[in-house]
Amino acid sequence: MMKSGNSDVMLCADNLLKTIRGEVPMERLKGIDARIIDRPAIEARKEFEQDVEWVMENYEPRFDMQDVSQDEIDPLFGQFQLNVFGGATS
After folding, report:
1. 3 inside domain
2. pLDDT digits over 27-79, tens only?
3. For residue 41, what are the domain limits?
4. d(C-alpha 27, C-alpha 1), whole Å
């Protein structure tokens, strides 16, 4: 956690997307499901979108998610980038 700025919606959303489910001791459901990461990109795409939407709805309702996309950086090594578009609700 940072010393200040923890109430910023975008920062909270970013932190949620960097958290793997199970690594927060008292909140085992918070974060992205790691089992999706090990699946082939084509199969995982829809599951990622659904999981990100679920995490944002449940843990950061102030974030208005508009779209989720996945870009392949190096498909040979399974590297990809998850892009979530949205912003803070008024």
Report:
1. no
2. 899 998 988 877 776 777 788 888 989 999 999 889 888 888 777 777 677 67
3. 9-88
4. 16
Q: Which residue has the tokens 């992205």?
A: 32
Distance CA 80, CA 37 (A): 10
Residue 21: give its domain's CATH number: 3.10.450.40
Torsion angle, alpha carbons of 33, 44, 17, 65, to 10 = -120
Q: Would residue 1 count as lying in a domain?
A: no
Burial (CB count <10 Å: 0-12, 13-18, 19+), residue 70:
middle
Token pair belonging to 53: 């939407």
> Length of the chain in residues, anyone?
90
Closest CA to 19 of 50, 58, 52: 52
Q: How many domains does the chain have?
A: 1
Number of CB atoms found within 10 A of residue 84's CB: 20
What is the pTM for the complete model shown?
0.75
